[in-house]
């Protein structure tokens, strides 16, 4: 049995979405060390960073949500969610890594949690510039790799917007308000999938 540790109100939501899209049976343990310090000690036994998510699959213990999702795709995925074509998988890796280096690391946490208005403004401008790259990439296609939803879409969309953030980037930014209509339409298609509804209902 696969076990996924981490509250659905955290980055664990990305891996919960992957489990749902892949149709896998799993056990969800909604650990949240930020709101419940008692969760930190058992979590640290699985992940030395004491952070979620953590996946257990047999004797494999794996942390980092993007690593978990790529493992799940490689281990259990099939086309179209996990493409057969190595070139398409390369593009899946490209967009997945891009979402980490350009969205998660550079802008997200500063934009959301800084109390310095100048830092917050600059971070939000940087975030908007980064996500704007997606608009032309989606101008002539429904999804990042073509006409079909893949794990690339899941990984990027769940980096921009978690299931509880009402379809807005980081719960705040509506791409349509900035003329990013292709991005807005794509994000709406991704976040309206049944998997997002199911994860939204989890703890």
Tell me what you see in this structure.
This protein has 9 helices and 4 strands. By secondary structure, it is α+β, with helices and mostly antiparallel strands. It has 2 domains: 76 residues, Glutaredoxin (3-Layer(aba) Sandwich); 109 residues, Glutathione S-transferase Yfyf (Class Pi), Chain A, domain 2, CATH 1.20.1050.10. It has a 4-stranded mixed β-sheet, covered by helices on one side. Helix 1 packs across helix 9, helix 4 runs antiparallel to helix 5 and helix 4 runs parallel beside helix 7. The mean pLDDT is 94.
What is the domain tally?
Answer: 2
Termini, distance in Å? Answer: 20 Å
Number of helices: 9
Seen as an oligomer or otherwise, the chain set is single chain
Sheet with the most strands: spatial strand order? 2-1-3-4
Q: Count of DSSP E strands?
A: 4
Order of helices and strands: EHEHEEHHHHHHH
Structural class: alpha+beta
Report on the biggest sheet: 4 strands, mixed
Please tell me the overall pLDDT.
94
CATH architecture of the largest domain: Up-down Bundle
Beta content:
5-15%
Radius of gyration: 17 Å
What is the CATH first-level class name of the largest domain?
Mainly Alpha
What is the approximate shape?
globular
Q: Which regions contain 5 or more consecutive residues with pLDDT less than 50?
A: none
And the CATH topology of the largest domain?
Glutathione S-transferase Yfyf (Class Pi), Chain A, domain 2
Measured as a percent range, the helix fraction is 40-55%
């Amino acid at each position: 049995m696969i076990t996924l540790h981490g509250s659905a109100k955290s980055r664990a939501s990305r891996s919960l979405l992957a489990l749902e899209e892949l149709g896998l049976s799993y056990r969800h343990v909604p650990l949240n060390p930020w709101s419940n310090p008692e969760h930190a000690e058992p979590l640290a036994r699985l992940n030395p960073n004491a952070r979620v998510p953590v996946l257990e699959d047999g004797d494999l213990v794996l942390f980092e949500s993007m690593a978990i999702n790529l493992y799940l795709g490689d281990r259990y995925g099939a086309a179209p969610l996990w493409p057969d074509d190595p070139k398409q998988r390369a593009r899946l890796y490209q967009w997945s890594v891009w979402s980490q280096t350009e969205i998660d690391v550079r802008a997200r946490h500063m934009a959301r949690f800084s109390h310095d208005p100048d830092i917050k403004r600059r971070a939000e401008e940087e975030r908007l510039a980064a996500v704007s790259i997606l608009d032309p990439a989606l101008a002539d296609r429904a999804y990042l790799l073509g006409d079909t939803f893949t794990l690339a879409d899941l990984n990027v969309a769940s980096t921009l917007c978690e299931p509880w953030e009402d379809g807005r980037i980081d719960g705040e930014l509506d791409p349509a308000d900035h003329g990013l209509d292709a991005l807005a339409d794509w994000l709406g298609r991704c976040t309206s999938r049944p998997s997002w509804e199911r994860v939204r209902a989890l703890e």
